[in-house]
Amino acid sequence: EAGVTQSPRYAVLQEGQAVSFWCDPISGHDTLYWYQQPRDQGPQLLVYFRDEAVIDNSQLPSDRFSAVRPKGTNSTLKIQSAKQGDTATYLCASTPGTLYFGAGTRLSVL
Amino acid sequence: AQSVTQPDARVTVSEGASLQLRCKYSYSGTPYLFWYVQYPRQGLQLLLKYYSGDPVVQGVNGFEAEFIKSNSSFHLRKASVHWSDSAVYFCAVMSNTGYQNFYFGKGTSLTVIP
After folding, report:
1. B46 CB near a chain A CB, below 8 Å?
2. B98 touches chain A (CB under 8 A)
């Protein structure tokens, strides 16, 4: 069974640039999560979906971050105008019951 | 509000020694509890989980954890650590009503000295 797939693995940006992260969850998993993990910290929820519906995006900086899951399968997280404070690893996970994580995308904003 | 506290940011032990990593949670009701491990440049991997029943749960690679409701704790233990256990360990709680939301602690970085 394929795991959660994320791309790209790494991204390096200048402040103000845009970037998109892509996630392919485990087949059949209806709930998908995006987490932000700053260096030396635990994962912090940004947004999660049940199928194509957003369940909770209260922690998503809505002025610059957006996330979609249009067909209830793959998902894209986008940062419109990156800031140095966005430097972190972005993790995608899917479930039911137990979270299965992808390897993450390490973002550096210079 | 749900939260998880891992009071020890870093733990160093010698190979072969026993290990306990502490976790305390705040949750109204009976939680679902998890321990995950993260190796460098990788995502989190599940070590073990507790949903109900026997409060001592066994996980992979000889890890176990005990749910103590009266103390709101879910400490992780291992009888004898190996250098390959060096990693960051995260405790998490999942809401068991409605949609599944997970809350993570800040993690404990374990270094095993050969």
Report:
1. yes
2. no
User: Domain range spanning residue A104?
Assistant: 5-109
Tokens 């749960």 locate to: B57
CATH number at residue A72: 2.60.40.10
> What is B3-113's CATH topology?
Immunoglobulin-like (2.60.40)
Residue type, A7: S
The residue among B23, B39, B44 with the most chain A CBs within 10 A of its CB, best to mutate, is B44
Cα–Cα distances (Å) from B29 to A95, B26, B32, B51, B54, in that order, read 21, 9, 10, 12, 17
Q: How confident is the model at residue B81 (pLDDT cuts 50, 70, 90)?
A: very high
Q: Considering only CB atoms, which chain B residues are within 8 Å of A39?
A: none
- Out of A41, A96, A101, name the one closest to residue B44 (CB): A101
Spatial distance between the Cα atoms of A50 and A66, rounded to a whole number of angstroms: 16
Q: Tens of pLDDT along B40-72?
A: 888 899 999 999 899 999 999 999 999 999 999
Do A13 and A107 meet the contact criterion of CB atoms below 8 Å apart? yes
DSSP B30: P
Residue B11 has pLDDT above 90, yes or no: yes
Domain total for chain A?
A: 1
Report CB contact under 8 Å: B34, A98.
Answer: yes
